[in-house]
Automatic annotation (TrEMBL):
Matches recorded under InterPro entries: Avidin, Avidin-like_sf, Avidin/str, Avidin/Streptavidin-rel
Disulfide bonds: C30-C108
GO CC terms: extracellular region
PROSITE patterns hit by this protein: AVIDIN_2 (PS51326)
Molecular function terms from GO: biotin binding
Subunit description: Homotetramer.
Keyword vocabulary terms for this entry: Biotin, Disulfide bond, Glycoprotein, Secreted, Signal
Entry protein name: Avidin
Protein family membership: Belongs to the avidin/streptavidin family.
């Protein structure tokens, strides 16, 4: 009886162990390329990075400081390729409909199995006089999640 129990114990361990070790060994992979939406409803597309870890893309903001009609704007950035699993990155959006620039910096995390970009940004708007420079910069945070694939 004792032998049978030990045998069953060893057998079940042998069956469960590979599953556990595979889970542990699989690294969380967060990839920047793709379509993302943030907590304000802005949409961004990041193209696959090149061999030097640089990328470009487009940004369609849902909100604006400028009164002009919002247009899709270009972005350029880099990721630090030291750790490709949950990389740190930065990018600049050069707004095509206003005279301002936003720089974002952040990290791509896998949180509960889902990719998320946790970012901070500085929005610098043009001033006509140096006397107004103190009023030129806004700071904030955005959280981006990957858009679900569109059905055709
Ligand atoms: C402008 O109004 O001059 C440009 C648009 C700025 C939009 C900002 S950038 C930071 C924040 N996150 C967004 O998705 N949109 C706003």
């Amino acid at each position: 009886m004792v032998h049978a129990t030990s045998f069953l114990l060893v057998l079940s361990l042998a069956m469960v162990a590979p599953v556990l070790s595979t889970k542990k060994l699989t690294p969380a992979l967060c990839v920047l390329a793709g379509n993302w939406t943030n907590d304000l409803g802005s949409n961004m597309t990041i193209n696959p990075m090149d061999s030097k870890c640089n990328f470009d893309g487009t940004y369609l903001t849902a909100v604006a400081e400028s009164k002009n009609k919002i247009k899709k704007s270009p972005l350029r950035g880099s990721q630090n390729c030291t750790d490709k699993t949950q990389p740190v990155f930065g990018f600049t959006v050069n707004w095509s409909f206003s005279d301002s620039i936003t720089v974002f910096t952040g990290q791509c995390f896998v949180d509960k199995g889902k990719e998320v970009l946790k970012t901070m940004w500085l929005l610098r708007s043009h001033q006509n006089s140096i006397k107004d420079y103190w009023n030129a910069t806004k700071v904030g945070t955005n959280v981006f999640t990957r858009q679900s694939p569109q059905k055709e």
